[in-house]
Amino acid sequence: MNYAFPITILFVSFIAFMMLRIPIAFCLLASSILAGVNISPKFLSTVFLRFGDGIQSFNLLAIPFFIFCGDLMGSGGISSKLVEVADVLVGRFRGGLAYANVIDSTFFGGISGSPTADVSSLGSITIPMMEQAGYETDFSVAITVATATQALIIPPSHNMVIYGMAAGGVSTGRLFLAGITPGLLLCASMMVLCWYLTKKRGYPKGPKYSLKQGLEVVRDGLLALMTIVIIILGCSTGIFTVTESAAIACFYAFILCIFVYRTVKIRQLWNIAKNSLRTMSMILSIIAAANAFCYLMSLMKVPEMITDFLLSLTDNKYIIMVLINIMLLIMGCFMDIAPLILIVTPILLPVVTSFGYSPVHFGIIIMMNMAIGSLTPPVGTTLFAGCAVGHIGIEKVTKSLLPFYICMVVVLILVTYIPAISMWLPNLMMGTQA
Fold first, then answer.
1. CA-CA distance, 101 to 86, in Å (whole number)?
2. Which pLDDT score is estimated for 378?
C-alpha cells in the first residue's frame, strides 16, 4: 500500500494543530486518528488501543515517584539548603554567587530531574540574591535558566525514563550513569564561562563562612544529596529497579522533610501531591498519545524512509551526526521535551545504531539537544519560567544567553564525538554491553 498521503496527513495535521496552540497530547492523538482513518476506518480502534498501551509499562511507574520526590523536596526548602552549600564552597571568590548558581543547580538537578522545577525553586532564591549583590537581572536569569538544564542530563531525569521506553527498553540505570560525566562537564564549562564573565565585569566577592558554620551547612545539604545516591546506586548495582529506587527516594524525602528538617507539614502533602498529579497526568497523556503516533509511523515505515534519506546524503557518520544534531536543535525550538523524545527516538535510533552508536550514548545526545531547546523561543519552557521568576523580558535574557548557548553547543559536540565521555562510567559499573 502507498502511504504517501497518510504520512502527509499525519505530519501536516500535527504541525497545524501545534500552530493553533492545541495541547500537544491532543495534537498527537488527533493527527493519529486522521492518518489512521485515512489508511482504513478499522484503524480508528487500533489507534485508541495503542493510546492505552502507551502507559502500560512498569518502568513508567518511576515517573510519578520522581516527580513527587522533586516536588516534595522543593516544597521542603531543600533548594535554600543547596544554595547555602554552594555558597560555602565557592561564594568567597569573585563572582561567587554566579559559581554558586551553577553548583546549586547541579545539586538540585540531581534531586528534581526537572529544569522548570529547578528554575522555579532555586531561581526565586538566587535571582534576588544576585540582584542585591550587584549582578544585572538579565545575567542572573540567564545563568539560572542555563544551569537549570543540567536536570535533564544529571540523574534522576524522568525524561531519560521516557527515552529508555521509546528506545525499546534501554536500561535506565545505564542512562543515569551515562548522564553523570556529561552533566559535570557542562557544569565545569559553565564555571569557566562564569570565571571569564565575572572577571571581565568585576562582580563582587561573597561572604566567608567560619569552619563551624561551613560544616553545619554542608552537613544539612549532604542529607538532601543522599537522594541521588540512593537512586544511582540502587539502579546501577541492581539492588533496586528504577521504580523501586524512585519509591525509596520518595520515602527518604518524606522522612527528611517531615521529621528531620520539619519544613513540610502533614497537611501540605495533599497540595504537593495534587501538583505532582497535574504534572504526571500531562506527561502520561503525552506518552499515551505519542505511542499511537509512533505506531502509525512504524506501520508506514517512516523511520526507514528517514534512514534511507540521510544515508543517501552521505555515508560519513560524523556528517550524519551533525545533521541529526541540527535537526534536533531546530525541533527543540518548537516542541516540548517529552513528545519530541517520543517522536524522534524511533526515527533516528536506527540511523545512529547503524553507525555503531550505542542507544545509551544517543540518549545523552538527545538530552543535550533538549537542554538547549528548552532555552530557545518560541517553546522554551525553562526560559519562560526564568523570565517569569525574574520579571524580565525574554528578548533581554536571550541576548544574555548567547555565551551560554556557545558553551552548551561545545559540550554537545564533545559528547557526540567522544563516546567515552558518556559510556565509561556505565561500562565501568555495569559492564560493557555487546
1. 8
2. 67
